[in-house]
């Protein structure tokens, strides 16, 4: 309650100060005119005359401003605004009668209803017109101010709603990304441990210990990668080579992979972290796990028009599923690409006796 009272007092004082400055300027103009015409008058007297004559404007503007403070949408309805303006027709005669009363008092005469009325009747039409113009102008200014405030409030509310929706959407996307990463990491660890356990079962202790060391390095990178939104192709290739070294402990010389097109420009390019390993893992699963012979996996990078194409190809066993691209790693990769960049994509298809997984990244993301 006290805060509202302080706000109301601040509004009233602001309007009094504004009109006081205007009346001060008007009184100064009248004072110089009186001197120029040879009828000098006291500036204090003229200031009092001007100030008292504009008290109705102070009351009107303060009242409208207070009404806007408590009802910001007061002038948003056209019919209501016209109705309030029509009600000012009752205000104008009272204003004119008040001005006549002020003139009687300033002349030192006794103020009566008759003397005030007589002064009102003698009032020049120009005075009526000027006071009507002041009243209408004040009303129009307050209407404009009210509509400006309401439009600004609506704009701020809309911007805040948009920001809240954007923040909510971003939070949801981040949660989805974290969920995908959390799903990817146990999946990767499970496969890496399988490779080490195969060595343990085979009694190859030195290689098993070496594998544990490599797994530690891989997990260190995976942990750091999950804390950021981007890695470089070079970092991802390093991770893939470490992963392949670990898998080579399991597959031996059967694991053969060719990497092509990884020039310096490509290696500097950014990409989502943990992007390549799921593709290589998928290729191993559908190549070496399906036969006893050597593998033939190809990883290539191709700059084509406005995109960078990352292709992983592996032979497909006749006994393999006709759609080997429905594994967890590929599903996660496709979902993560969609979240990271709407222009990125992953497509999979069978090309003759090979299975192709192709990631397409906008080159703008590589610059």
Overview of the molecule:
This protein is an alpha+beta fold and 367 residues long. It folds into two domains: 2-162, no CATH class; 204-366, Heat Shock Protein 90 (2-Layer Sandwich), CATH 3.30.565.10. The chain is 67% helix and 11% strand. The protein contains eleven helices and seven strands. The protein has helices at residues 2-36, 43-53, 55-70, 78-106, 113-122, 125-201, 205-225, 233-251, 264-268, 277-286, 328-340, and strands at residues 231-232, 257-260, 270-271, 297-304, 307-315, 345-351, 354-362. A five-stranded mixed sheet has the order 2-4-5-7-6. It is rod-shaped.
Write the layout of secondary structure elements.
Blueprint: H1 2-36, H2 43-53, H3 55-70, H4 78-106, H5 113-122, H6 125-201, H7 205-225, E1 231-232, H8 233-251, E2 257-260, H9 264-268, E3 270-271, H10 277-286, E4 297-304, E5 307-315, H11 328-340, E6 345-351, E7 354-362
Parallel strand pairs: 2-4
Antiparallel strand pairs: 1-3, 4-5, 5-7, 6-7
Helix pairs in contact: 1-2, 1-3, 3-6, 4-5, 4-6, 6-7, 6-8, 6-11, 7-8
């Amino acid at each position: 309650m006290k805060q509202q009272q302080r706000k109301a007092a601040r509004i009233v004082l602001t309007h009094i100060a504004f009109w006081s400055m205007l009346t001060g300027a008007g009184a100064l103009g009248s004072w110089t005119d009186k001197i120029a015409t040879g009828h000098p008058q006291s500036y204090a007297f003229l200031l009092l005359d001007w100030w008292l004559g504009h008290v109705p404007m102070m009351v009107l503007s303060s009242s409208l401003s207070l009404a806007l403070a408590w009802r910001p949408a007061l002038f948003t309805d056209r019919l209501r605004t016209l109705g309030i303006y029509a009600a000012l027709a009752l205000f104008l005669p009272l204003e004119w009668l008040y001005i006549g009363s002020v003139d009687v008092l300033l002349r030192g005469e006794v103020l009566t209803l008759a003397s005030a009325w007589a002064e009102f009747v003698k009032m020049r039409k120009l005075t009526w017109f000027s006071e009507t113009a002041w009243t209408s102008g004040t009303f129009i200014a307050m209407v404009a101010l009210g509509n400006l405030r309401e439009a600004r409030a609506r704009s701020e509310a809309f911007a805040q709603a948009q920001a809240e929706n954007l923040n909510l959407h971003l939070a949801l996307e981040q949660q989805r990304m974290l969920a995908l990463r959390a799903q990817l990491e146990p999946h990767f660890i499970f496969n890496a441990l399988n490779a080490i356990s195969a060595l343990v079962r085979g009694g190859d202790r030195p290689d098993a210990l070496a594998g544990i060391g490599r797994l530690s390095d891989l997990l260190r990178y995976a942990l750091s990668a999950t804390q950021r939104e981007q890695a470089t192709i070079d970092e991802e290739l390093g991770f893939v080579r470490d992963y392949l070294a670990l898998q080579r402990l399991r597959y031996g010389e059967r694991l053969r992979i060719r990497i092509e097109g990884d020039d310096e420009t490509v290696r500097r390019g950014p990409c989502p972290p943990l992007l390549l390993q799921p593709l290589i893992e998928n290729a191993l699963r559908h190549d070496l796990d399906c036969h006893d012979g050597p593998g033939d996996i190809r990883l290539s990078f191709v700059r084509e028009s406005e995109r960078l194409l990352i292709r992983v190809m592996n032979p497909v066993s006749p006994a393999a599923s006709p759609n080997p691209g429905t594994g967890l790693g590929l599903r996660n990769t496709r979902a993560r690409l969609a979240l990271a960049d709407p222009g990125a994509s992953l497509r999979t298809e069978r090309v003759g006796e090979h299975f192709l997984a192709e990631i397409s990244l906008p080159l703008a993301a590589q610059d």
